[in-house]
């Protein structure tokens, strides 16, 4: 197979299908999503057996347990995909919504209509459930999509593709609206991210190195985040209980996620009250602590943090801690080291809460809440295709809205420009 | 001067200033705009004499009359800049606006806050008034900016820069928030569009070749439109008077603008009624007509349109005309040849108007109104920094909103993720 020719053909077909899917009625799109859910349920045995082929190949290739775990499709996993499809079907259709329609002095009415982006390219690693989640969000937002999953999940993804195709067909929608790249050849990624004439945006999901490479090489806009170096700042006017709850939850609720806290900043006025209590809990939970000099004097079992620690997303039970003079030093540290993902202030002080919200330049900024809330489901977006730490187009969790754009509409009655 | 070192220094300073300007209060930003207006009024004589240097150099270089006309600063032009500054000062401040704040089942409140983009790079050709207009919009939206005007306007732009600096200083804002590139060396453009670490978005204004080159070479996102191949479709259920008014206005109100009609599509059921009357008016106004075969049989003095005509933005008193079977053929033609700028349907038919609005994929889609309305002022945006025909971030006229982004904010009371 000539990969270039193959990917160009996918692009051309997806571009053509994007016109149909952009005009499809809400009911038809929802029906397709429910059809796909039904098809997954019907073909569950086949899905599991195809997945076994990938798992067997993965074991032969020497994949580690975590990778095999991500690759596995279980009956519970199929149920979760089905539930996800039903949830997306139940969300309001963003396409065609008209906002802000108002009369201008010239007599015309001007407003904006929400429209699909066109064709979305999604590149992800081993989890096959992303195939169904991403296809569902793209379809609901009226987009065609080209999905490129991990090469080690090729049999699983092709089995899922068959269910998606069946669901689209039964709803009378073009099956070319969702393409799942049918080759494990890694050259397909390089082609997909340069299909400028056919693909409107690329959403990479996976490790930092994958995303960095895609961003560097893509000639199409990329919606992404590289790092989640999230901070919690405990102000000296923090409520102690809230501070401890939030700092523990933000670090220990899950370690390997982008919205986990990596650095804790503590105002020096409250450090002696809060840090020993926190250190005890972290110790019990097996979290390794790396602190500044002052932190070390307050906590035993705390190694000295290096400059590199402030730059590091551990994705592990490790936490760096810095004692700062006040909110200004905290915000300066965040400005210097944050990856602009999510930051929280814990304080009862109104003025500092207001300043933190306004002045911290991250995709999510919180007061008295755990960074772990930075998530499309928690925000009520219904689902998320990813999280963006960039500023253009979409910031923070990206749901259906981020997969659409706004065009201007003008209603007149023979109006001409004077 | 080492251009690379110089541009890096501008970028670094603008990035630093962007933090201050992003936090500046509305009153302070407005004061700066009014100060700049006052400074322009005070230094008008100097502005005109510096502009004379550019005009004299331009004549020596053999610039044509149209170019010299764009380059000239007149007392009327200074008044227009002053008026523009006052209008931008009077607009509501977009920065910090919180929308959609609502309670989630978890107890947190989630909303979005409008925030500046950071540093905007603007590249434009000879008109010096863009210097003031663009700086005003960037400032109001809380952004720093780096402005790179035409090399032939270097004296004029430096004189305007002095007024802007004076106005910023008097308002207590960093003068480094607005940089006007102080070299005529064209290498500065190449540097500006690759200042990835310091510049968030590039807005090019000028001819298609400039914009195409910038888009191809930039490593920073570009907000732009290349072409304005705008269509008017006269449906067979159009009101004849409205159709003629709109078709004449859209073509002849101004010829050299991106929102002028370049191709007229007419339903065959109404062509014999509308085209001869229209052709008469176009003839009187000196508009050259190029039509399809059927058009030629209805209108004398109409040459045969070639395939190239449907692709051409004339920016001149030339119009291509095609008779189509119905709205479907009209929309297919638009889909194939439009530059996605602005299209209008003229019809009294409700269903066709509704379909056209939904299905035509352009940055502005209109019913019974002239394409000439596609403009930031006409839409009530206050002003525009440009028009985007892309879909990511901003589509259509880009005003203050397009120079901002939305971050998520979360308000809790010690909430943690369960």
Describe the secondary-structure layout.
2 copies of one chain form a homodimer.
Chain A: H1 3-23, H2 26-42, H3 44-61, H4 65-71, H5 75-90, E1 98-103, E2 109-116, E3 119-124, H6 129-140, E4 144-148, H7 154-170, E5 178-180, H8 187-192, E6 201-205, H9 208-217, E7 230-234, H10 240-252, E8 261-267, H11 268-284, E9 288-291, H12 293-298, E10 302-304, H13 307-310, E11 318-324, H14 327-337, E12 342-346, H15 350-359, E13 364-369, E14 386-388, E15 396-398, E16 404-415
Parallel strand pairs in A: 3-4, 3-6, 4-5, 7-8, 7-12, 8-11, 9-10, 9-11, 12-13
Antiparallel strand pairs in A: 1-2, 2-16, 14-15
Kindly describe this structure.
2 copies of one chain form a homodimer. Chain A has 418 residues and is of the alpha/beta class. Chain A is built from 15 helices and 16 strands. The first copy, chain A, has a 7-stranded parallel β-sheet with strand order 10-9-11-8-7-12-13. The radius of gyration of chain A is 24 Å and the shape is globular. The model of chain A has no long low-confidence stretch (mean pLDDT 95). At the A-B interface, helix 1, strand 2, helix 10, helix 15 and strand 13 of A face helix 1, strand 2, helix 10, helix 15 and strand 13 of B.
Strand order of the largest sheet of chain A: 10-9-11-8-7-12-13
* SS elements, strand count of chain A: 16
Gap from first CA to last CA of chain A: 59 Å
Structural class of chain A: alpha/beta
Strand content of chain A: 15-25%
Could you state the oligomeric state of the chains shown? Answer: homodimer
């Amino acid at each position: 197979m000539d990969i270039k020719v193959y990917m160009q053909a996918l692009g051309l077909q997806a571009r053509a299908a994007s016109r149909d899917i952009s005009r499809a009625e809400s009911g038809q799109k929802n029906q397709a999503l429910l059809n796909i859910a039904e098809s997954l349920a019907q073909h569950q045995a086949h899905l599991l057996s195809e997945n076994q082929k990938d798992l067997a190949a993965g074991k032969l290739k020497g994949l580690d347990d975590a990778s095999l775990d991500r690759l596995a499709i279980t009956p519970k996993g199929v149920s979760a995909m089905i539930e996800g499809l039903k949830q997306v079907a139940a969300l309001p259709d963003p396409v065609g919504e008209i906002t802000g329609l108002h009369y201008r002095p010239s007599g015309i009415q001007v407003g904006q209509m929400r429209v699909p982006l066109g064709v979305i390219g999604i590149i992800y690693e081993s989890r096959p459930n992303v195939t169904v989640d991403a296809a569902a969000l793209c379809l609901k937002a009226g987009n065609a999509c080209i999905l490129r999953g991990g090469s080690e999940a090729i049999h699983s993804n092709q089995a899922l593709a068959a269910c998606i195709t069946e669901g689209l067909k039964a709803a009378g929608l073009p099956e070319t609206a969702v393409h799942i790249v049918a080759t494990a050849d890694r050259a397909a990624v390089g082609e997909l991210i340069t299909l400028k004439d056919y693909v409107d945006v690329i959403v990479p999901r996976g490790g930092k190195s994958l995303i960095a490479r895609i961003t560097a090489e893509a000639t199409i806009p990329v919606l992404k985040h590289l790092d989640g170096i999230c901070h919690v700042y405990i102000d000296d006017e923090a409520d102690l209980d809230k501070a401890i709850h939030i700092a523990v939850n933000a670090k220990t609720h899950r370690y390997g996620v982008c919205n986990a806290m990596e650095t804790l900043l503590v105002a020096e006025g409250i450090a002696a009250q809060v840090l020993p209590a926190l250190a005890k809990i972290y110790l019990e939970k097996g979290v390794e602590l790396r602190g500044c000099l002052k932190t070390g004097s307050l906590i035993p079992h705390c190694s000295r943090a290096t400059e590199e620690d402030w730059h590091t997303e551990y994705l592990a039970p490790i936490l760096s801690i810095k004692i700062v003079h006040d909110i200004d030093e905290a915000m300066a540290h965040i400005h210097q080291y944050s990856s602009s993902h999510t930051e929280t202030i814990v304080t009862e002080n109104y003025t500092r809460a207001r300043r933190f919200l306004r002045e911290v330049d991250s995709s999510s900024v919180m007061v008295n809440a755990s960074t772990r809330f930075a998530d499309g489901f928690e925000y009520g977006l219904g689902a998320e295709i990813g999280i963006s730490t960039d500023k253009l187009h979409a910031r923070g969790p990206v749901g259906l809205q981020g997969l659409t754009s706004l065009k201007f509409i003008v209603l007149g009655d023979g109006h001409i420009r004077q």
